[in-house]
Amino acid sequence: MVNVRQAVILGAGLGCRLKDVLDDRPKGFLQLGGRPIIEESIAKLIRSGINDIIIVTGYCFEFYDRLAEKYPFVRTIRSPEFATTGSMLSLCRPGPWVQSDFLLLESDLIYEYQALQTLQSSAHENCILLSGKTGSGDEVYVGVHENRVVNMSKCRDDIKWLGGELVGISKITRDLYQQMTSLAAEKCKQNRQYQYEDCLTDLSRSTAIYYHCLENLAWSEIDDEQQLSRALNDVHPLIQRRDSETVHSKHVERRVLLNPGPATTTDTVKYALVGHDICPREKEFGDLVEGVRQDLVRIVHGADAYEAVLFASSGTGAVEACLSSVVPHDKSVLIINNGAYGKRMQQICDAYHINHIDYDINWGKPVECSLVERLLMRHRQDISHLALVHHETTVGILNELSTLSHLAERFGVEVIVDAMSSYAGIPIDIQDSGIHYLVASANKCIQGMAGLSFVICKTESLEKTKEIRPRNLYFNLYQNYAYFSQKHEMQFTPPVQVFHALRQAINEYFIETEQGRAIRYATLCDVLEKGLQALGFRFLLETEYRAKLLTAIIEPEDTRYAFSEMHDYLYQRGFTIYPGKDAAQNTFRIATIGALTEQDITNFLDHLEAYLIMKEIKLRPQQPERIVGPRSSLGRTVVEKAV
Q1: What is the pLDDT of residue 546?
Q2: What is the spatial distance between Cα 521 and Cα 425, in angstroms, rounded to a whole number?
């Protein structure tokens, strides 16, 4: 789910047991430190990523109204009958303003920041925070079974399996909130003192409500003078000490990127960007780069025969570096083009006046090895390199590597592979496949951040390129490789923080394992395609040519459909999708790479179905799948061109 950005605080209570202490103030305005406890709570909520706080008021509501004037992200909703009703009726009051999932809190709480971090990072959408034994004297015990809440009571004997003590902070989905308000409308007819805790217990029989217990959490409710004394003397000082020792990282809202890169990253990769500053000329950073270089090679089983050369650039920069550095001035490169990125290779060669012979294929059609062999035979004196895209994300087609590279080997031709969106997503053995140069970037299947790209080069081939007169400075492969080899430093200033994120991403790749990641991606794709088929969508490619990383979907022909509108609808709900690109039929594309889960894909499909229903879009009955080509022609074309 998208991280919670809204909070509701229940602050309507009278505070009768603290009447002599409060002096006509709400309990939230008790002051234990430098400011009222309600303002301490607000500060922690903002720090945790909350940007919309609703306070339900009643007793001495003016105090809270002044907070709403002070803070633009606070609003107050008054509960006129607070003195004679339970907390559930107060919770019903902000209904029209609760537009999303939210954190529910009580105003008389003090708690350490970890409480919010725990709920915000929980995988459970509905989750109640519990603690271990407090000895506070007014405990609410929570009974659980199989990780779910089943009942609550102030009497310990009522609890069969104890999960912990209720803290008073919960994460509630909008759907559960709507169930609560509906149930409250019935329950409050007989019981005006209906409490929100009772409502959660009642609904737990039909809706999964989970819990998370922090055994040593520092927190306290303040209902009477005994609790106030404990809070003032013991709990609040402990909270201050723990919070001062906590590094408060900016909360990162999770969005599900279904575009073919940059991909969704884990929180740990994001947090890796936050670290100490360091000059990239220091040995410490050189050691980091060297470790990254070695492991990038290790991912494709390059052992000691390959070197990784890194650039501060997008993936296109690395492709440009490779083509401009390795093709001799008097030779040509044979470029296989069955998508936008094969075409981009041709454009790079044109820019550098590099001779190239083009095998142009209708986008979405597979490569015919016999035609490649014919071109290699015809131009055997001119061609030094064969270049192709492994996973062509224009249409989601996977081009075969081993057969083509071994075919090139027969003619003494070296192989350049753009593996931008397959590296670390599909197992590749660079040595067995006979690849001399493999190009990729940090922001796709390796699940790092954008800003770093790399070329994994066969060392023997890379060494030979030093004899080629450089066509550029920044992007010269050999010069960058030689500089690092000699000085243990990158030749030009690197993005230091992005390197730290890539280091973390690589570590997580190895924990997941090569097969584990490939299986997860393939499973995500299967879930997506089955769901799309159930909705009536058709695919651009036949199953045998799909890479299981990206799916090109034929757009509905219904006049009520518009991609931009569908994109915006899904984007507002946390999902980013991508338009098609120059295929024979209008398409949109869904990538299933990055730090995604099956639940992400299921949630996406649910929202997509909701959009179709809302717009009343009719999909054509499923037709037999077939391969289609570009709009420009019906057959294959082979273009021989020397620039």
Answers
A1: 87
A2: 7
